[in-house]
Amino acid sequence: MKRHIPNAVTCLNLFSGCLAVSQIFAGRLDLAAYFVALAAAFDFADGLLARALHVSSPIGKDLDSLADMVSFGVVPGAMLMQLLVRGGTDLPDWLPYLGFIVTVFSALRLAKFNNDTRQSDSFIGLPTPACTLVVASLPLILLDDRFNLAHLILNPWVLLVLTAVLSGLLVAELPLFALKFKHFGWSGNALRFVFLGLAVVLLFLLQAAAVPLVILLYVVLSVARPARS
């Protein structure tokens, strides 16, 4: 029975992603963002449970990728498309569909991950959940625009640049640390604890507006870390 528990949690990730898609096309990007956060929590939990229960299988690995393709591949593309639609009425009709470039690169990222033996304890390229959390934070920032960012978030050219940057980061040969704890001591986990501490502070101070900064911090700390950390 225990070997099915992580897969059940993975299915909850997929179900949350499907709910997010439904809310995007219903025009409720804010609700979709909450379902993305739920999917990310389930995605983190399934790996944690698999390691804790010492269970793994090829089916579990494939199921995880299929679930991620919906929750962290289709969802950010659809969300970017909807934001581009809202960003300007004078845009060419085809331009908002460029948001789905993130979906294409998410598929490439997941395929690379499944076949790259270097990514067992760390990542090469931005993980798809991190990419999606950046996109999902945008409608939440708009919902409570205390920092006057709407003019940037709804600027189609800013959104297209963001689409290109995120797509590039997904497949970049960029070594990034993973939030996988083999133990909870400081030694060997210092970078993870520093990142998590700074992330909590940023989220407390800036709330949804902190999410892109947290992901940027993740990339910067990964690049700046000592080679053997």
UniProtKB/TrEMBL annotation:
PROSITE patterns from the UniProt entry: CDP_ALCOHOL_P_TRANSF, PROKAR_LIPOPROTEIN
Keywords per UniProt: Lipid biosynthesis, Lipid metabolism, Membrane, Phospholipid biosynthesis, Phospholipid metabolism, Transferase, Transmembrane, Transmembrane helix
Subcellular location: Membrane
Transmembrane segments: 32-53, 65-88, 94-111, 123-143, 149-172, 193-221
UniProt keyword annotation of Membrane present: yes
InterPro entries reported for this sequence: CDP-alcohol_PTase-I, CDP-OH_P_trans, CDP-OH_PTrfase_TM_dom, CDP_ALCOHOL_P_TRANSF_CS
Major site of localization recorded for this protein: membrane
Membrane topology: Multi-pass membrane protein
Top-level lineage group: Bacteria
A Pfam family assignment: CDP-OH_P_transf
Record-stated family: Belongs to the CDP-alcohol phosphatidyltransferase class-I family.
Name of the protein: CDP-alcohol phosphatidyltransferase family protein
Organism: Hymenobacter defluvii
Phylogenetic classification of the source organism: Bacteria, Pseudomonadati, Bacteroidota, Cytophagia, Cytophagales
